[in-house]
Design brief:
alpha+beta, 8-stranded mixed β-sheet, 9 helices, 18 strands, globular
């Protein structure tokens, strides 16, 4: 049974060298000005110890020709899609469905969902703070867009060992990090560096607000090369968390380990990106798919009924509307996922996307937070009982992967047609509302297995 709704948006731009690439970046603090409940772990965690380091909204806006896309990452556990939609409505510089709002999933930031209040039946969500986040994130995107300038981009991949561990099945671990960096075409200065790596930012667990290891990632990158440092999390669900540290360190206060991990991620990213060539001769393509999944989680249903989690337009008749996006910039492929995707699904998707681009950026906690996204064969296993209790349901993984397959099939057909037309006339294809028969056959061969049961 399919819950995908027939709602597929597609835009493709073939960029000539004359059009070139533009990029701009900005960052603003989203640190609360008053005491809040911290999200993650358990209820009743107010930040009575104050603020260790600021939390941020960090954005990069990219434009090729008339196509413009924004990626903004917040140091938060997650944002619900209805709040993301409010951000998009306030952004003036980028079309709403081209604004990607991601969260690092840090567990020492304010509760923006509601599940971690003073008691399990009381919301921890401060609506005044959430409204502040919405306004600040939108402002950050517009600031980044106002700084658009001719740019060069480079992409790299690297391996990061010793930072993350799979606490469920140790052998299933994606240690690959993907990096993109934008530099000014005029003077070579770094505009932004984005690193995509899967690991819960949860070294720390105490009464202080912090962005966890992301703080030291930002600090290390920006001190080394300048620009705006951005950390985008990956397929971290079930259960990719920081590797063990000093057993003698105070529980929840191993600041040295958080600093070490953030510094390692930053240095590995910088080493990798320093070795690649940069270019402005890139295309920018975007596809969006909106789909619905049934809300099966009884705990979430009760939380919604009690007002612990806010009910909004994305929940209708027991079904949740969510979305995924496929973005191609030059050779790189980016795919957004509306929650915490299990690592085996992430590895599976990377292999499929690698057929069309390299490197592959898998953005988790993107434009929504629907909890853990578990493969159907794993959903009812005892080992994933906690993840199941924090998942919207058993269907979300299948539908997310199915969305990926449909978007890749569409991308394959239109990309092939555009290559043909570009050779003849150097202009974008008018066909991108559909897929050629040849492309469908091609996609069927390559992506027939793009489901978790196939």
């Amino acid at each position: 049974m399919r819950f995908l709704i027939t709602m597929l948006f597609w835009t493709i731009v073939v960029a000539s060298w004359a059009q070139g690439l533009q990029a701009g970046a900005a960052a603003n603090k989203i640190t609360p000005s008053k005491q809040v409940y911290l999200a993650g772990y358990a209820s009743n965690r107010p930040n009575t110890g104050g603020v260790h380091d600021d939390i941020w909204a960090r954005a990069v806006v990219v434009q090729v020709g008339q196509e413009r896309v924004a990626i903004v990452v917040c140091d938060l556990l997650g944002l619900l899609r209805d709040d993301v939609q409010k951000i998009r409505q306030r952004v003036k510089s980028v079309s709403p469905n081209r604004v990607m709002v991601l969260c690092t999933h840090v567990h020492s930031a304010p509760d923006t969902i509601g599940l971690w209040g003073p008691t399990p039946t009381q919301s921890g969500r401060d609506n005044e703070y959430v409204n502040f986040v919405i306004e600040t994130v939108a402002k950050t995107v517009d600031e980044a867009a106002s700084k658009l300038q001719p740019a060069l981009v480079g992409f790299a991949k690297t391996t990061i060992e010793g930072v993350a561990k799979n606490y469920r099945i140790e052998q299933i671990l994606d240690t690959e990090a993907a990096v993109m960096q934008f530099r000014s075409k005029a003077d070579g200065k770094v505009i932004a560096t984005l690193t995509n790596f899967a690991c819960h930012p949860e070294v720390l667990n105490n009464d202080q607000l912090t962005s966890d290891f992301c703080h030291w990632y930002y600090q290390t990158v920006e001190r080394a090369v300048g620009g705006v440092a951005i950390f985008a999390n990956g397929a971290l669900g079930g259960m990719i968390s920081p590797a063990p540290g000093d057993p003698n360190a105070p529980k929840g206060r191993d600041w040295a380990r958080a600093e070490r991990f953030g510094t390692i991620i930053a240095n590995r990213a910088l080493e990798a990106i320093a070795k690649v060539a940069f270019t402005d001769a890139v295309t920018l393509q975007h596809i969006e798919m909106v789909y619905t999944v049934p809300l099966e989680n009884e705990r979430f249903k009760l939380a919604l009924a009690a007002g612990v989690i806010p009910a909004g337009p994305s929940l209708v008749d027991g079904k949740v509307t969510t979305e995924s996006h496929l973005i191609r910039l030059g050779d790189a492929v980016m795919f957004t996922m509306p929650g915490e995707v299990q690592p085996n699904i992430g590895i599976f998707l990377k292999r499929r996307f690698a057929m069309f681009g390299d490197p592959v950026f898998l953005f988790g906690l993107a434009n929504d937070e629907l909890g853990y996204i578990l493969a159907p064969p794993d959903y009812y296993l005892d080992i994933y009982s906690y993840e199941r209790s924090m998942s919207v349901g058993s269907v979300i993984a299948h539908e997310t992967v199915d969305a990926a397959g449909q978007m890749l099939a569409r991308e394959a057909g239109c990309a092939a047609t555009n290559r043909l037309l570009t050779k003849k006339a150097a202009r974008p294809s008018p066909c991108c509302g559909g897929t050629t028969a040849a492309a469908r056959r091609h996609s069927g061969r390559r992506f027939r297995s793009l489901s978790l049961s196939g």
